[in-house]
Amino acid sequence: MDSSKKFMIVSVSGAILLIILVSCTLAYSGRDNTLMSDKSLNLTINGFNVELPLAEDGAIYDAISLSSVSTNTIKLNNETGATVKIDEKGIGAGKSMDLKLDTLSSNKLIKITVDNEKDVKTIYLRTLSSQLPQINSAGESSYEGNYYAALATGGAALYELNNKGEVVFYIAKSQQEANGETYSDFKKHTLEDGTVRYSYQRVYGDSNGIGTASGERVILDENYKEIKTITLAQSKFAKKGDPIDGQDFILIDDNHYIVAASQLVLVQNIPEGLSASSMGSKVVRTLIQEVKDDKVVFEFTTDSHPELYGLSVKGNDYSNATSQSPDYTGFDRMIIDPADNNLIVSFKNLNTIMKINRDTGNIMWKLSGNGDEFGLTSEQKTSGQSDIALTKEGYLTIFDNGTSTGQTRILKLKLDEVNKKVLEFQEFKVSGETALADGSAQRIGDNIEVYTIGWGQTKEGTNAISEIDFNTGKKLLEITLPQGVSNDRVQKIK
C-alpha cells in the first residue's frame, strides 16, 4: 500500500461513506504550511551567526562578514518546514553550502527564498554591509598588494581593499551585535613556509580597566575562517588568559608569536626627583611576551628599566595626584629586525624608538626623545610617533604624528647602530594633513619613494588612506571616510 495514503470506512445513517484521507507530500515531508511571518532563518555565514526574520517579504539584511576573494560558507541552522534556496541553490537544515561572490557592492544582493507551498517569502542579504562606513576612492595603485584596515572610530568593522579601493572582505557589526566590541590592527601574515594567516584584535571595551584597547588576538586561516584566539600566557608577569593590547602583534608561525600588554602595577623604583609616592606609585607598564609552543621564551617589562620613567612626556604623574593609571611609555609598534632578530619598539609617550635584545631584554639603543643616543637635532626628533617599519634596504621609516609641532611627516633613516649615528635622514610631508592619533606609513616597493599612508584620526578633513609617489609629488590613490570615522592603522601587503 502507498504509505502516503490511509483508507477508513465509516457508517453514516445506513450508508457507507468511503473517506480517503490523503496525507499530502507537504505534511508527509514535515512541512509547516502555515504563514511564516513569525518565523526566521538562523544562518551561520563565515563563522558568524545571523538571524533573518521572515516577517516582511522583500526585506534586506546585512551579513556580518563576506568575501569576494575567498569562498563564503553558509550553514542553515534551524528546521523551517519549508524549501530554502540561496541564490537558487537549495539548502537543508544542518547543511552547509559554498557561495562565491565576484564583487561586494551595495547594489549586489544575495537572494533567499523560503517556500512552504502556502506561503513564500523572499528576502535579501547585502553583499556589502550597511554597517560599513561609506568608503570613497579615487585613483588606482599600480603596485601589488591589498590594503588592510580596522576602524578606530565610527563602529565595529575591519576591511580589506584592492588596489582600486574596493572592499573585497569585511567584518562589520551593528552596535547591537557588537555589544561594545570593536576591532583593531587587521593584517595579513605570510609565514616562512608560505602559509597565509590573517589576524586582528578583538577589543572588549576597556577590559583591563586602564583605558587601552585590550582583548584577544584572533587568528584566521587563508580563507578568513577563525582558527584560534591568543591572550597572555602564564608567566611571572601575567596570568594565563590575561588580555593583550591591540596596537601590534607579530606572528612568526602558527605556534610562535609576540604580543604586548598594558598592565597596572605598583612600583617602588622610580628615581628621585620625579615626585613619586613614598609608599609606591601606580603606573601602566608595557609587557612584551614571546611565546613558542605554548611556553614563554622571552619577556620584557618597561618598569624593569627605571631610566625610562624620566623620559616620559605624557603619563608621568608618579604621585598619582590626577591619574591612578599613568601610561608613561605608550607602547605603539614593534618589529623584528631581520639583521639581528632583535626587537625595534616604538613608545609614543616617550617620543622614543628603541631596540631591545631578544635574548637578554637589555635596551641596545634609544632613538629620539629625551634619551636620544643618535644625536638627532630638535627638528629631527619625533613626537607621538605611531608607526615604524623597516625597508628591505635596511632603512627605518617612521610615521611621526608631530604632536609637539602640529606637522605630521614620514621619516626615513639609515642608522649606524654600532657608532650610534644617523647616516641618512629624509622627511616627507603632505600639506594640510595632520594626524592627531593612530596613523601609519609604509614604503611600497624597493628603491622608490612611494608610501601607503593611513592618516588615523586627522585634525581636519576626511582622508583615510593615501598612496603617494613623493618622487613626482602625485597621489596614486586616495580613500576617504565620513567625518568622524577613522582607521587605526593601514598596511598594504601582497
UniProtKB/TrEMBL annotation:
Pfam families: Arylsulfotran_2 (PF14269). It comes from the Bacteria. This is Arylsulfotransferase N-terminal domain-containing protein.
